[in-house]
Amino acid sequence: MLYEGDFSPPPGRFALVAARFNAVVVDQLVAGAADALKRHGVGDDRIDLVRVPGSYEIPLVAQRLGKSGKYAAVICLGCVIRGDTDHYDYVAGAAANGIATAALNCGVPVVFGVLTCETLEQAINRAGAKAGNKGFEAAVTAVEMVNLLKQLPGG
Ligand code: INI
Hints:
Blueprint: E1 13-19, H1 23-39, E2 47-52, H2 58-67, E3 71-81, H3 87-106, E4 110-117, H4 120-125, H5 134-151
Helix pairs in contact: 1-5, 2-3
Bound molecules: 5-nitro-6-ribityl-amino-2,4(1H,3H)-pyrimidinedione (INI).
């Protein structure tokens, strides 16, 4: 027996948790995620957007939303760009680890759509310019995971 999520229209509501930091990039990730959801049959009426100050704040809010029982999936969107100090490592590491922890704690897909880049140019390229839109990809992953979890035992 093979279990694999498909890309058919998923049930339920979807939450986007988006950082305001580097908003010029994150706004494009939000647009990409909403576009992907719409293309998979999830209209605006089933999408809630929650804004947080920075990527460091995403996990707490993602976990709260994931545990609420209101959402089929939570899509985390942010952009961390390396500066002159090691601050980047702490923010990016906390966001990645915290989002993974939130997913395990709440039992619904909590998808990692946080860019971790060396430069603003790299980030822009991954937010709809030259290298796709990671927000779009995160939302497609959420759709696949919701459809996979529907099939798996223990759901
Ligand atoms: N937050 C980001 O989302 N991206 C960044 O690049 C960033 N940098 O570089 O500092 C950033 N910092 C803010 C951080 O997420 C928290 O909001 C802040 O530390 C307060 O907890």
